[in-house]
């Protein structure tokens, strides 16, 4: 198969060009392998993050246990000027931070995105005097642009978190201010009260409240106001 070299003057030689080509091939292969390994690591990390975020978006859910509306009788027929939602986290959900949550409020005439404003769930109007002028200000943390939260049950989460399934938090929306689009007028408190009078959801009206938590998980709740209020101060919505 192989011819024996009997002449001692004959030698097998490898040219320097062949050696350079060989080294270049090894370097190219090493660089390509490094790029492939790095790309695979990046893709694996992205896939893991995407999977975790998708799982949270699917598993993390806020459930509305109860919803009620406050009836304002300053007009002849009355209207709902505030809504309170009692919420809990669904089984299997991770902890939910309500201070990072947003609420999308949509009615026939209004579409607003609300952020967390605080933990004072009182609904009312107060007059503040500054610089010789009276300012009508919506009292409490629930305004035309913000919602308020208050812990009502459970020992883990407090006012702004749902940690265990025992936690219950009340979310308050100032519907009158949201529908009017104002919560602070540089005039008088009486003027603001007049501006909010009649603003809200009348009998038979409806609205959609979409809760979006920090992971992007969404829960929609439909608010439906009874056609008549009678002499009730609070109605189920």
Automatic annotation (TrEMBL):
Keyword terms of this UniProt record: Archaeal flagellum, Cell projection, Cilium, Flagellum, Membrane, Transmembrane, Transmembrane helix
Gene Ontology cellular-component annotations: archaeal-type flagellum
Subcellular locations according to the entry: Archaeal flagellum
Domain of life: Archaea
Keyword Nucleus: no
Keyword flag Transmembrane: yes
GO molecular function, one term: structural molecule activity
Gene Ontology biological-process annotations: archaeal or bacterial-type flagellum-dependent cell motility
Coiled-coil regions listed in the entry: none
Positions of transmembrane segments: 12-37
Free-text function comment from the UniProt entry: Flagellin is the subunit protein which polymerizes to form the filaments of archaeal flagella.
Record-stated family: Belongs to the archaeal flagellin family.
NCBIfam families: arch_flag_Nterm
The protein's name: Flagellin
């Amino acid at each position: 198969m192989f011819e024996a070299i009997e002449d001692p003057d004959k030698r097998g030689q490898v040219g320097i060009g062949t050696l350079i080509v060989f080294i270049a091939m090894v370097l190219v292969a090493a660089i390509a392998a490094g790029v492939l390994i790095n790309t695979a690591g990046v893709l694996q990390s992205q896939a893991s993050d995407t999977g975790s975020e998708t799982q949270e978006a699917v598993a993390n859910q806020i459930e509305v246990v109860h919803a009620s509306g406050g009836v304002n009788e300053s007009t002849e027929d009355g209207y709902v000027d505030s809504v309170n939602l009692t919420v809990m986290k669904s089984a299997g959900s991770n902890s939910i931070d309500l201070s990072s949550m947003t609420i999308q409020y949509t009615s026939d005439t209004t579409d607003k995105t609300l952020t967390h404003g605080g933990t004072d769930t009182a609904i009312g109007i107060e007059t503040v005097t500054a610089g010789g002028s009276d300012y009508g200000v919506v009292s409490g943390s629930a305004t035309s642009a913000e919602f308020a939260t208050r812990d009502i049950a459970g020992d883990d989460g407090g006012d702004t978190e749902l940690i265990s399934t025992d936690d219950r938090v009340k979310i308050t929306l100032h519907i009158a201010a949201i529908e009017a689009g104002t919560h602070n007028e540089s005039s008088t408190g009486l003027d603001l009260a007049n501006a909010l009078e009649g603003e809200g959801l009348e009998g038979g009206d409806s609205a959609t409240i979409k809760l979006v938590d920090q992971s992007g998980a969404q829960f929609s709740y439909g608010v439906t106001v009874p056609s008549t209020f009678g002499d009730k101060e609070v109605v189920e919505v």
